[in-house]
Design goal:
By secondary structure, the chain is of the alpha+beta class. The chain is built from 5 helices and 17 strands. Helix 2 links the parallel strand 2 and strand 3.
Length: 253
Amino acid sequence: MKKISFFAADTKEAQQALDDLTNLHSNTPLKDADVAVVLGGDGTMLETLHHVYQSGKPVYGMNCGSVGFLMNDFSVDDLHKRLKATKQVKVHPLDMVAIDQNGHRHEAIAFNEVALLRETRQAAKLQISVDNIERIPELVCDGILLATPAGSTAYNFSAGGPIIPLSGNMLALTPISAFRPRRWRGALLPCHLTVRINIINPEKRPVSATADSSEFRDVQSVEISQSRSNTCTLLFDPENHLEERILKEQFMS
């Protein structure tokens, strides 16, 4: 991994890190690079994954932001040595297809989650099907999300959803402020299943759909499944592996 393509957040800290590292290593265009190195936080990592995944290049992040759950510790020293010692994690994004009220089709991928949220003061009413079998005829809520294992510690966990080990091959379907049925707290689904969400009375109760940072307004139906064709390789220092982080997160108070 001698040729590195750097991606940095526009913060002062990340830009300084970029200057320091490009003084030590040339910044190679992505198409000619062996690896992409991300400088910033988890938001910058997600943006980079959307830019990089089709290239097939592995991605290594160094934390110059706040949370940095998907990042390694930052250091200017021994970057080539660290890259050589990394362990790989394959992550599979979600494919989302949303149809809006005008019949327009919108496609996007999500490495963390696909979230549906009400747009107005009125609660959303959603009909939930899994592999063409209706599971909930009417969910009254602020919204719902489907999260990957890598994204299960983010919005999903804040909404009360479970943390999923990377090896679990599961997706978390988690309601956001569910009102009816009041006791439904979500479901763990095998990753090969397809979730379809139909919005009930979308003109009166409009709903948006967001795949990571791509948002589409006034949708009437959304179909989500784990991507069969897309994958991305993340690189982690052996002592700071993502699988261990996700496991540790389940025991933190």
